[in-house]
């Protein structure tokens, strides 16, 4: 499919969408609760129930990049949950919000240099990762395939792109069908998982063939 697709000419989201994304930082850092700083208000137990199925996609040791990492809590927990399954991950993350990234650096003191304030729509990293994770919510619907192509370019050969989507009980929102999103954008889904009632969180992933280079 899109393996090897280049994205230098990708259309960016409009200013209103980007302003909304930038505004999340202010809302998140108003709270001292690290879970709220991650954009979640359901408490620790629900956080674990709904987010831990992401680690069904972690099948080996490697580097884990969280695109839209907020305060780094998810990356920290994914590493811990993966370790409980016998897999060692090195956390990495980028986010639009410099205050949030500062919190992520404080949380990941041994890997602080792996977290960066950056706009993923214009970021051009000089490396690849074993696992690249992000959500459908960081791209407008009309640009979701372009978003996935961009993330795909950062996955190492033999690595895995993981896509997530979160619903909301309070707003009566269901998560996106991430498997359908990936298929619509031309990917072959390798696996999926879900968490919470409904379910309220959904994950699916795609494997990049060994030996393939962008």
Query: Can you give the helix content as a percent range?
Result: 25-40%
CATH homologous superfamily name? Vaccinia Virus protein VP39
The biggest sheet, with number of strands, parallel, antiparallel or mixed sense and barrel status, is:
7 strands, mixed
Backbone shape: globular
CATH architecture: 3-Layer(aba) Sandwich
The first-to-last residue Cα distance is 12 Å
Q: Give the neighbour order of strands across the main sheet.
A: 3-2-1-4-5-7-6
Q: Output mean pLDDT.
A: 93
Order of helix and strand elements from N to C terminus: HHEHEHEEHEHEE
SS-derived structural category: alpha/beta
Radius of gyration: 16 Å
Proportion of residues in extended strands: 15-25%
Count of individual beta strands: 7
- Kindly give the count of domains: 1
- The CATH class label is Alpha Beta
What is the CATH third-level topology name? Answer: Rossmann fold
